[in-house]
Amino acid sequence: MFGKIKYISDNVAHVMNAGGSSGSQDLMNVHVIFEAPDQRILGEITEINPEFIKIRFLGEYINDRYINGVIRKPLLSSQIRIINENELKELVGTESGSSFTLGHSAIYKNYLIYPDINDFFSNHFSIFGNSGSGKSCGVARIIQNVFGNKNTLSYHANLFIFDAYGEYKNAFKSIDHYSEYYNYKFITTNPVEPEDVLLQIPVNLLKLDDWALLLQANSHSQLPIIERTLRLAKIFSQQNEESEEYKNHLIAKALLAILFSNQTTASKKNEIFTVIEVCHTNDFNFDSRIAGLGYSRSFSECFEIDSNGNFGESVLITEYILKHVNDDLEEMKEPEIYSFSVLDFSRALEFTLISEGFQNNSKVYDDAIILKVRLASILNTRVGTYFVNMGYVQSDSFVQNLVMNRGKKAQIININLEDIDDTYAKVMVKIMCRIFFDYAKSLKERASIPFHLILEEAHRYIQHDNDTFLLGYNIFDRIAKEGRKYGTILGIISQRPVEISDTVIAQVSNFLIFKMTHPKDIKYIEEMLPNISADVIAKQKTLQPGSCVGFGGAFKIPMIVKLDLPNPLPYSSNCNVSACWDMKKQENFTQTSLEPINNTSLQQEIESLS
User: Fold this and answer.
1) In terms of Cα–Cα distance, which of 171, 167, 172, 136 is closest to 157?
2) What is the DSSP letter of 148?
3) Cβ pair 339, 237 in contact under 8 A
4) Which of 323, 326, 304 is nearest to 314 (CA)?
């Protein structure tokens, strides 16, 4: 079968085909060993013709352990043989408590691929492929295999699956069948079943950067506005005498600035009333009583304009306002323990808008109005209901509560975001990932609690955003670069890798690539991964659904893997158009007709088909 090595060029050996055209058809992609004294080099057959067999060098066995890469080429006198069973097991792995079943080898029948759990799950991983190539089924099968491993109990696993379409509930809801210690939690924006949990994020956990993302800030001038609003919201949350005095101080400063402006009296009145309408307290509202010498006036009455075009009680109102100015309150510290709602934040923004520094700067004021409009849209839509005032919640309590479900620890936490548009879904995922990352960084023992953040349809979230320009960082870029050492691992699932941040892709160590055909995606993968070979790229173009090319740190060599269908399946199948169109088959579907059918002849025709 294998004759002598005729010559070696670059990383390929040209071997004489001793079998001619017969007996060598089944050798494509088979691995062989170039054996010589103190040398065993692994190669893969890449081309066969009647005269030559081309074999590409992959690595070397040293003391029965496979090492990737070839430093020294095989001798021309080396004996060439098919890889044996022990050598093959070194490549595909063996079943144990420290490994998991990935799938079947597409080249070697009756052999399963067993990546090491640490080699795969201790590093960021990506799963790419066209729609319908088997990504969702592949993810479900891998996770089912991990928890179905009878050699180990992964009780302390924390897999957070950000599910764009609610696909994985069916695949994981019965995970307790593997073990009574396993538990699944479904967090969703639209609970339907009794065990569903409504997605809620404590408002007090939102930092300045989170508010900037939520309000879609796009200018550096908006950050001081958000920062001041957040400070005021914390102070006002105390609801004590001091916070009330601070509100009065802010209103008084704003009113003084208007009173001593160059506007007409009527304009001043309108602007003052506008301030009181949006920002009012017990001391500053339209009905507040202001005492004079032997009489009193309501706040609104003090601004009646006399025949000379002036405020009738200008002296009285000025004295009253000045009494509430206390510049010492500007140094008031933020409380360490606080809680407020999105509505409270909105009210704090109103006080920020009347502050002297913003009111007199038209550009900054316009930026603040944009934030106000965006905040109002959040309050008036379902998005506002997902950010709630739960009192003062610490991040560790929030995370610990997330992984608990009905008194038991959940290993898979499925967060369903299908009812939220992409803009807010991306923000919510970023906020939650930031909370997990900060929590992991705060642990005394580094990486003692691993978090796996699996992002389905990752191109919705991990994009080339302006976060770096505005905030100085993007949370996904930061997790990609720093998360591994803290045990915060990204799992990226996408059909469009070209739309994902190249910084994140560059930090990924393991890849499962299902069939991809878009030339831009293929070119992007080639450019972003210098170690990927043209052979791997060529193989993935012709893969069957459910098959993938696995390569990276968890794989000794790139491997074509056929994954079993998950059991149960995720909700990721195609629409059954034929059944939906066919009236005879509609009895099996719960579909409401767009209009009633009263055509007797049509009904008779359908019955005749029976």
Assistant:
1) 172
2) T
3) yes
4) 304
Distances (CA, A) of 469 to 72, 205, 297, 474, 504: 47, 23, 53, 9, 17
Range in 98-107, 130-139, 582-591 with the lowest mean pLDDT = 582-591
Check if the beta carbon of residue 375 is closer than 8 Å to that of residue 226: no
Closest CA to 428 of 202, 226, 172, 126: 202
pLDDT tens sequence across 76-106: 999 999 999 999 999 999 999 999 999 999 8
Position of tokens 């906020």? 431
Distance, CA of 88 to CA of 66 (rounded, Å): 10
How far apart (Å, rounded) are the C-alpha atoms in residues 110 and 96?
Answer: 17
What size, in residues, is the chain? 610
Record the tokens describing residue 315, joined without a space. 């002296």
Higher confidence at residue 527 or residue 49?
Answer: 49
| Residue 576 vs residue 131, higher pLDDT | 131
Is the bond leading into 568 cis (omega within 30 degrees of zero)? yes
> CB 536: neighbour CB atoms within 10 A?
21
Residue with tokens 């307290």: 281
Q: How far apart are CA 82 and CA 411, in angstroms?
A: 43
With H, G, I as helix, E, B as strand and everything else as coil, classify residue 327: helix
Closest CA to 150 of 99, 89, 90, 91: 99
Amino acid letter for position 98: S
- Can you name the residues that pair with 305 across neighbouring β-strands? 311
CB 164 within 8 A of CB 425: yes
> With contact defined as beta carbons under 8 Å apart, do 223 and 211 qualify?
no
Distance between CA 85 and CA 99 in Å, rounded?
19
Give the chain's radius of gyration (CA, Å): 33
